[in-house]
Amino acid sequence: MATIKDVARQASVSVATVSRVFNDTGLVREETSRRVREVAALLRYAPHSGARSLITNRTNTLGVLLPDLYGEFFSELIHGIDLTARKNGYHILVSRSWEGRTEIEEAMRAMRGRVDGLLLMSPDIHRDTLLNLPADLPVVFLCSPSQGHEVDSVTIHNMRGARAMVSHLIAVGHRRIAIIKGSFGNYDAAERLRGYQTALKEAGIEPEPRLERCGDFTEVGGYNAALALLAETNRPTAVFAANDSMAIGALSAFRESGVKVPGDIAVAGFDDIPLARYMDPPLSSVRVPISELGATAVDILLHAITSKNLHTRRHMRVSTEVVIRRSTNGQPAERPPPTTFNRETSSG
Amino acid sequence: MATIKDVARQASVSVATVSRVFNDTGLVREETSRRVREVAALLRYAPHSGARSLITNRTNTLGVLLPDLYGEFFSELIHGIDLTARKNGYHILVSRSWEGRTEIEEAMRAMRGRVDGLLLMSPDIHRDTLLNLPADLPVVFLCSPSQGHEVDSVTIHNMRGARAMVSHLIAVGHRRIAIIKGSFGNYDAAERLRGYQTALKEAGIEPEPRLERCGDFTEVGGYNAALALLAETNRPTAVFAANDSMAIGALSAFRESGVKVPGDIAVAGFDDIPLARYMDPPLSSVRVPISELGATAVDILLHAITSKNLHTRRHMRVSTEVVIRRSTNGQPAERPPPTTFNRETSSG
DNA sequence: CGTCTGTATGTAAACGATTACATTCTTGCC
DNA sequence: GGCAAGAATGTAATCGTTTACATACAGACG
Question: What is the DSSP string of B100-136?
Answer without folding.
Answer: SHHHHHHHHHHTTTT-SEEEEE--BTTSPSS----TT
